[in-house]
Amino acid sequence: MPAPYLEQIRRAKEWQDAKVTSTITPTLKKICIKTVSRHMDVLDKKALDLPISLIKELLQHLNIVDLDRIQPAVNRKGISTSFVWAGILRRISGPRKGSTILTEDEWREISMHKLFNLAFYGFRFGGDTKYLLNVNFNSLLLVMAKYIQHLVLRTSRPHGYFFARRSVLSVLEKGVRCIQLGESTQLREWPSDVLYTLHRLLDHGAARDVIINQSPDPRLLAWILHGRGPRSKSHQCPMESMQGEMVKCCQVPNTAGSSAGDAEAANYQVPEKEEPDEEDNNGGTPCKRPRLSIASAKAELDLTSTPCQCMVPKPLCQMFIPSAGHSTEICHKGQIHSLKINDFRGGVFPVLLPLLPSWLCLHSLSLQSAWTFEEGDALSLAESLQQLSATPGCSLIELSVGSLTHPALMESLLNACPTLRSFSMEIHPVAEYHRAPLRSIPQPAHHAELSLEKLCVKVPKLRTSVESLMCVLLRSPRLTSLHVSGINSSTGFSPSHLLNTVAESNRHLKDLTLEDINLSDCHCAIFQLLDNYCMLEALSLKDCRLLEKCSDKEDVVRQLVNSLKKVSSLQSLNLAQNRLAKTVTVLGELFKGPSPSTVKELDIRQVAAISISVGYFGIL
């Protein structure tokens, strides 16, 4: 039987300390600080009467339970614990790249999140572990769990101690808002205790957002979604397969087919009394991606090849771990408000599309993929969304779809659900991208207004039509955020048309990001946008080749500065990767004169520009 988890950490720490003390004799002050840190649960407020310099030293020797408990009192004395939490995070993850500006609470939350993920799966801690000692494991888990709002679940089996302490799970049920599945495997390969945790957080807790990193097993996705949003008469776990058969979502622990790990998880007993632990491609060639197809997915999906029988009709808590819940406890289904699949594959659509029309509580849907969607499949998605939108009580306001083949599909999706407030898409045209979609769906009048407030369109350096984008902008008077990236002008189109449309039709725009678009011939359109009725708070023209064709670059930058000064609402400006060179000195005039710019954040990430502009931007 291996040593308890914290006992292993304590022994490793003692061995590390022994190596140090054999060569260095500790001072009396260090001995006293170390002794006080071990008895903070007794001394507590008395220790805070020490001089501020000593308190700062003491903080670095406390475990995270004591540190978290006394932080409010320490803050009242004008002391921040940011440096302690930053040190803990550095020991766990190593030095952070670049400059990081975080608040005290943010440092603490990130540190607790990292620590909990290590402890939850029983992973080994690296570096100095003094912040984990002089406290029992349950207290340690409880204080970490308080700060977990986003929990990553894997097929690795969690530490057994976690399931013997229902108090920790209860804290997670109250705090976790988002569950992320870090791996994609067959449903039967997920340990029962992980599925039990997923069930408790979704059905007994406050978790409403689900993120799936990889394209999920259709049965796993069906089990997650069943009854947790799409309308269902049953609140129990039985689900019908797509062939109308009753299938079982997972195996019952302690049966002949269950794994040894499942049997072990099922045998965990909740102790009557808790005992403390011991201390311790640039051209015009279209990008060819693999293509998704519902038809091929259905052909490949064989639900009978791996039997998955129906769950027995009893509470899920008893289903996964019989000793974990009371026999009288009723397991109602929770609701999923947000679903994000980061690596979308063909097997998902046959499960997802039939559920969408009745998923009234769905607020946000994101389907990202390295594969391009078939036009017919994208229109099938639009049809399901149209049915959902036509149902009273529809809550969907955010939609993100990656790798569509045709720009016109943007209008098809938006027309299907005109109440969307946020829409994001990426276009990857294939060789026949100019061909019209295979079929159309009923669409409202062309001039119908959209409710869009946020729009993001990315085209990776491919020549494509922007007519659909222009039409959407004309129909979106409420737009406050626009991000357009990588558009390569088609014949007869200039980015000036895009800027003029924004200036005329999107007067409420607060955040404008244009990236990797050639604006070298669009100076007048930029100045006009900034001069007339502009409410911008953030402007980004990253990698837009602003000065590529200028004979007098300083004069153009000076005109830009004068226009920027007129935008009294502007807080953030990004001109990175525009080869500003020596003209950055002219850009410094932004902060001079009787009416300096209100910009507080400036990004000109080019080594030459930064070295020249230090004197001008020191005021920031």
UniProtKB/TrEMBL annotation:
Keyword DNA damage: no
Region called Disordered, residue ranges: 258-289
Protein name per its UniProtKB record: Leucine-rich repeat-containing protein 41
Family matches, as PANTHER family: LEUCINE-RICH REPEAT-CONTAINING PROTEIN 41, MUF1
Record keyword Iron present: no
Keywords assigned: Leucine-rich repeat, Phosphoprotein, Repeat, Ubl conjugation pathway
InterPro entries: Leu_rpt_41, LRR_dom_sf
